[in-house]
Amino acid sequence: MKRSIITTGDGSKTISLDEWNEQYHSKHGAIQEAYHVFIKHGLHASLKNPIAILEVGFGTGLNALITLHEGIKRNLHIKYTGVEAFPVSPEEVGELNYVEALQLPQLDATFNQMHSCDWEEAIPLSPNFILNKNKLDFREINSEGEYDLIYFDAFGARVQPELWTQDIFQKMFNALKDKGILVTYSAKGSVRRAMDAVGFNVERLPGPPGKREMLRAIKK
User: Fold this and answer.
1) Cα R_g (the chain), whole angstroms
2) Which domains are delineated in the chain?
3) SS3 173
């Protein structure tokens, strides 16, 4: 499938899957979306320290980068697990401008290390941030009570409906600790109903630029 690098509404770049008309991040602003959905309504809402985070859809590494930055600011101890079936290429990583757009030149080497480091190994990227990337299909996640927070950042249900099913959200529910949080940019009714069906307490929240709503789910 043809992939291209595009510039989003806030000046940050993302990857576009042209045949699907689908992007790794919002066309209205990749960084804006990441901060709104995953940091404001996820990391900042969790209030756990130390905190174990699972990202379903590691992709460009943007969510991991800003989580590391927020962790440094708040002195958080973070264990970050990123799951990705199809890693982005080194050439694509080289075209992403997140470090520049965030004005964080001190994290340039760290961002590159996120992508170049070995898979299935715990890699300390800072004294308080450990990254473990797992190359596997989301349907192969079988964790039990391991995470405080899940960033659910899969491609949309329009193009990959099999990743937004009750079975998938049962896996997410199982992977969370009690009172754990899952956040996602999606607000589809079918997604909310799938979350409800497995026992999540689901709330609709204002969405990032370009989206009216998003979902946050809490393990009861």
Assistant:
1) 16
2) 29-219 (3.40.50.150)
3) helix
Q: Which of 136, 6, 131 is nearest to 78 (CA)?
A: 131
**Model pLDDT, residue 182:** 98
196 and 202 Cβ atoms separated by less than 8 Å: yes
Cα separation, 119 vs 131, in Å, equals 10
- Tell me how crowded residue 53 is: count the other CB atoms within 10 A of its CB: 25
CA 79, CA 208: separation in Å to the nearest integer? Answer: 26
Of 79, 92, 93, the closest CA to residue 131 belongs to 79
Mean pLDDT by 10 residues, the chain (220 residues): 95 96 96 98 96 98 98 97 96 97 98 98 98 96 98 95 97 98 97 98 97 96
- How many CA atoms are closer than 13 Å to the CA of 146, on its beta-carbon side? 14
What pLDDT was estimated at residue 87?
96
Q: Are 219 and 46 in contact (CB under 8 A)?
A: no
What does the block give as tokens for 181?
Answer: 């949080």
Distance (Å, whole) CA 166 – CA 43: 24
Residue 94 near residue 105 (C-beta atoms within 8 A) = no
∠ CA 189-193-194, nearest 5°, is 120
Asked whether 208 and 37 are in contact (CB, 8 A), the reply is: yes
Q: Which amino acid is at 50?
A: P
Q: How far is CA 192 from CA 50, 53, 130, 187, 204, in A?
A: 29, 21, 31, 7, 9
